[in-house]
Design goal:
With about 300 residues, this protein is an alpha/beta fold. It contains 14 helices and eight strands.
């Protein structure tokens, strides 16, 4: 199948590789010249603009967008919408807010263009093992793009989960769960690391837990890999970003009266990691000194 691809970053570049390995013909665009050249060397047809990309595709066109959520996605879809025609299909594989995907789909539908919101999970390992694809949108558009999904995903690794917006909604909750899982492993290994008297080998324990224990997982395998490279993670700063999905998941839980304390606290812990020094901790220390005479550490 011939498909356009916009966005050749860590995820997008690997997805293009996997599609071409699966026999698909790719017309690629990225504003970063080096990324476009790398895709061209592997067999993709380069396009120097969105207009050129659209011109090089057969009608009806299919274009996969893999750019950062927010303004980048908004601007890319807005630019493409004026270039596309009835029967064309756009696939947003980024981490867009599902409400934005629903709004964009309504606008595109007025021009006869379909939008599939494809929540994509797999990270940098997707090229080798495949991507889990959570797709929302019209059934007919999904079926037309199914050969692409089949190539990108491992067996059983893709599905149409519902109408427009459902794909990005499911991916949002997926990432919220990821926050809680990461936090659980992080806290457990911090307790292990703090028990200095046992001189625990954290890589050994991560490996051990993956041999039949109830908490074995791919994330735990990656934990072992991280400790193998840096046994006490001394080269890494304890600063954790969030890309938005955790916030959206918490907001959705509040809106629907769903208690989600683990995901919420995991998100707040990410905020805490960005503080060089916690002012709230200073307040607590000062108050303990005031009411109980408890000692405080001075700078």
């Amino acid at each position: 199948m011939k498909i356009g691809f916009v966005g050749l970053g860590k995820m997008g570049g690997n997805m293009v590789d996997r599609l071409m390995q699966g026999g698909h013909e790719i017309v690629a665009f990225d504003p970063v010249a080096e990324a476009l050249k790398a895709a061209q060397k592997k067999g993709a047809t380069p396009a120097n603009s969105l207009h050129e990309l659209v011109e090089k595709l057969d009608v009806p066109r299919a274009i996969w967008i893999m750019v950062p959520s927010g303004n980048a996605t908004e601007e890319t879809i807005a630019s493409l919408s004026s270039l596309l025609a009835e029967g064309d299909i756009l696939i947003d594989g980024g981490n867009s807010l599902y409400k934005d995907s629903m709004r964009r789909a309504r606008s595109l539908k007025a021009r006869g263009v379909s939008l599939l919101d494809a929540g994509t999970s797999g990270g940098i390992w997707g090229l080798e093992v495949g991507y889990c694809l959570m797709v929302g949108g019209e059934e007919q558009a999904f079926q037309e793009l199914e050969p692409v999904f089949q190539t990108l995903a491992p067996e059983g690794g893709y599905a149409r989960v519902g109408p427009t917006g459902a794909g990005h909604f499911v991916k949002m909750v997926h990432n919220g769960i990821e926050y809680a899982l990461l936090q659980g492993y992080a806290e457990g290994f911090e307790i292990l690391e703090a028990k200095k008297e046992f001189k625990l080998d954290l890589e050994q324990i991560a490996y051990l837990w993956n041999q039949g224990s109830v908490i074995r997982s791919w994330l735990l395998e990656l934990t072992q890999d991280a400790f193998q490279k840096d046994p006490r993670l001394e080269s890494i700063q304890g600063y954790v970003e969030d890309s938005g999905e955790g916030r959206w998941t918490v907001a959705e839980a509040i809106e629907n009266d769903v208690p989600a304390p683990l995901i919420t606290l995991s998100l707040l812990e990410r905020f805490r990691s960005r503080q060089k020094e916690s002012f709230s901790a200073k307040v607590i220390a000062a108050l303990r000194n005031e009411f109980g005479g408890h000692g405080v550490k001075k700078k």
